[in-house]
Amino acid sequence: xxxxxxxxxxxxxxxxxxxxxxxxxxxxxxxxxxxxxxxxxxxxxxxxxxxxxxxxxxxxxxxxxxxxxxxxxxxxxxxxxxxxxxxxxxxxxxxxxxxxxxxxxxxxxxxxxxxxxxxxxxxxxxxxxxxxxxxxxxxxxxxxxxxxxxxxxxxxxxxxxxxxxxxxxxxxxxxxxxxxxxxxxxxxxxxxxxxxxxxxxxxxxxxxxxxxxxxxxxxxxxxxxxxxxxxxxxxxxxxxxxxxxxxxxxxxxxxxxxxxxxxxxxxxxxxxxxxxxxxxxxxxxxxxxxxxxxxxxxxxxxxxxxxxxxxxxxxxxxxxxxxxxxxxxxxxxxxxxxxxxxxxxxxxxxxxxxxxxxxxxxxx
Length: 364
What we know:
Blueprint: H1 2-15, E1 41-47, E2 52-55, E3 72-78, H2 83-92, H3 97-104, E4 111-115, E5 118-128, E6 135-144, E7 148-153, H4 161-169, H5 179-214, H6 218-250, H7 258-323, H8 339-360
Parallel strand pairs: 3-7
Antiparallel strand pairs: 1-2, 1-3, 4-5, 5-6, 6-7
Helix pairs in contact: 1-6, 5-6, 5-7, 6-7, 7-8
């Protein structure tokens, strides 16, 4: 859990990092991400209803051939530190310099922009590592044209493998639709992964809640705060995504066919569900925090109750011991041969009587 906290905390800090572009003119192509060692690689899946071509390590010069092809092309660019190559792709597809700047500035807020011949969409892809369950975030940028969908991501590995399998095996309607439906399918994969993260988060919250009921401790509070920071980061990624998908669904761009709008409405509903889940989990965490404080207070009250009962029992015993410990000469009980056992019997009877009284009152 501490790893989760550190990763989410680092991701949050990235949102507020001072940009490396400070002082540069608008449209300056500067990669601001941290994955500077990832080489640029381009893969292209070109398809129609009958054929498909899956190419790896395509050159930037070869990408222009897919611009006006009759088939649908998904051009996926991995690694953004080669700004010159990104610039060449932008020139080939007439992408505005400000859009290229936003692609390279990897802490963008999810957004949608309609720019005449193409749509520009920025989203955040969230995923967790299978072994460590660390939360990671990556900016994915999409350029949608009449025949192409270009995606830009910082590192290799994403949540699109199922979409690639559907394309290769021709499952469903994806090969029969245009690039706008492909954009929907990729967005749907990102949002579906949000649900997976929410499921894992829900299990962790339930585990923290049960552990707090069993044995509240400071370590559990650290886990609680880690979950709160993680949910805050997820919320920052999902809330603006709702606006972007809503803009797609309500938009009148010719690049989005009427058939696709129905799927975009469904995707918008899924985004609302994720947001509702995030808000529910935030309320649950606040309730778990109150539960921890209540459990801690109850535990302290139990300890104080036991100590108070012990102190109360010893008050009359101390009184008896104090009276007969004064050693006055004219105390008749001091010289009686049964004084010692009688004193013990008296103190035992007082203790038993007080315990019986406390039990009747249900004080313990």
